[in-house]
Amino acid sequence: MDFLRGAARSKGGLPIIALPSTARNGTVSRIVPELQPGAGVVTSRGDVHYVITSTGRLPARQDAAQRVEALIPIADPRFRAELEDFARRSKLMERSERRVSCE
């Protein structure tokens, strides 16, 4: 968290989380709809301006609903339908909305 906040406050700095889109040899998505009980959180979403995975990047600073929609395309393609289904069932994304493209 100190590095992210330091990057945000330094001249020209950008707080970025960079991670592979999957773990365990591609069997687990690193973009998940919910954390497991007891999972640790390294930083708050307000401290992160960009999330970059091996499949794309989340655009800077969005509200919670926009962030949900923008995270789906940067997840591994094998997990996107599952994430989108969860977002719709949880009313985090409207049925008529389409996924945004990666930048």
Q: How many alpha or pi helices?
A: 3
- In the sheet with the most strands, the strands line up as 1-4-5
The portion of residues forming beta strands comes to 5-15%
Number of strand segments: 5
Please state the average pLDDT score: 85
Give the % helix: 25-40%
Along the chain, the helix and strand elements come as HEEEEEHH
Strand count, sense and barrel status of the largest sheet are: 3 strands, mixed
Distance linking N and C termini: 25 Å
What global shape is seen? Answer: globular
- Derived from helix and strand composition plus strand pairing, the structural class reads alpha+beta
Q: Radius of gyration, rounded? A: 14 Å
Low-pLDDT stretches:
none
Fold and architecture overview:
- By secondary structure, the chain is of the alpha+beta class.
- Helices cover 28% and strands 14% of the residues.
- It contains 3 helices and 5 strands.
- The protein has helices spanning 2-9, 64-71, 77-89; strands at residues 16-18, 22-23, 28-29, 50-53, 56-58.
- The protein has a 3-stranded mixed beta sheet with strand order 1-4-5, covered by helices on one side. A two-stranded antiparallel ribbon has the order 2-3.
- A hairpin with a 2-residue loop joins strand 4 and strand 5.
- The longest helix is centred in the last third of the chain and has 13 residues, at 77-89.
- The protein is globular, with a radius of gyration of 14 Å.
- The two termini are 25 Å apart.
